[in-house]
Amino acid sequence: LLLSVVCFAPQNYPLYIRSVPTENELKFHYTVHTSLDVVDEKISAMGKALVDQRELYLGLLYPTEDYKVYGYVTNSRVKFVMVVDSSNTALRDNEIRSMFRKLHNSYTDIMCNPFYNPGDRIHSRAFDSMVNSMMMQVC
Predict the structure, then answer these.
(1) Which domain holds residue 82?
(2) DSSP 96-117
(3) Per the structure, how many domains does the chain have?
C-alpha cells in the first residue's frame, strides 16, 4: 500500500503532499519530514558521483515498524519521498524506481507550464490523477 507521495522544494518546504489518511497523521508527517535529513546525508555522501552517474533514485532511506521510506532527487535538487506500508513485500525496487520516474516526468510537465511559478505549491489535476493512479495501482 502506497501511503504517501511528497514533493519538496530544494529549500525543503513541501510543494505537494498526497497521503492516505492514517490513524496517527502527525507521526506520519513527522516521518516524511525527518526523511529529508537522510536525503541530505545521501546527497552529500554521493556528491559528485550523483551528478556523474545521473542516478537520481536514492533507494530505501530508512525502514520503520510501520513504513518504508524511499527517496529520489532531481538535478535541480527537488526531492520526492514515497512512503510505503512495510507489510507490502510485493513491491520491488524496480517498481518503486519506475514510479519515481513517472512522478519526475509529471513534475517536468508542470514546470513546462508557462502559468506555473517555480516554488509555488503544485495544484494540477493531471499531477493529482497520476499520483492517484499510482496509489491505486499499488493497492
Answers:
(1) 2-138
(2) HHHHHHHHHHHHHHHHT-TTPP
(3) 1
**Total Cβ atoms within 10 A of residue 86:** 15
For residue range 6-54, list pLDDT tens digits in order. Answer: 999 999 999 999 888 767 777 778 888 899 999 988 888 766 554 555 6
**How many Cβ atoms from other residues are within 10 Å of residue 14's Cβ?**
17
Residue 130 · residue 136 · CB < 8 Å: no
Q: What is the CATH number of the domain that holds 120?
A: 3.30.450.70
Q: Do residues 103 and 5 make contact, with C-beta atoms less than 8 angstroms apart?
A: yes
Number of neighbouring beta carbons within 10 Å of residue 53: 9
Q: What is the pLDDT of residues 107-126, one digit of tens each?
A: 999 999 999 998 899 999 99
Closest C-alpha to 4, from 121, 82, 114, 113: 82
Task: Give the span between the Cα atoms of 43 and 37, in whole angstroms.
Answer: 10
Grouping H, G, I as helix, E, B as strand and the rest as coil, residue 74 is coil
pTM above 0.90, yes or no: no
Please identify which residue in the block is written with the cell numbers 496509489: 135
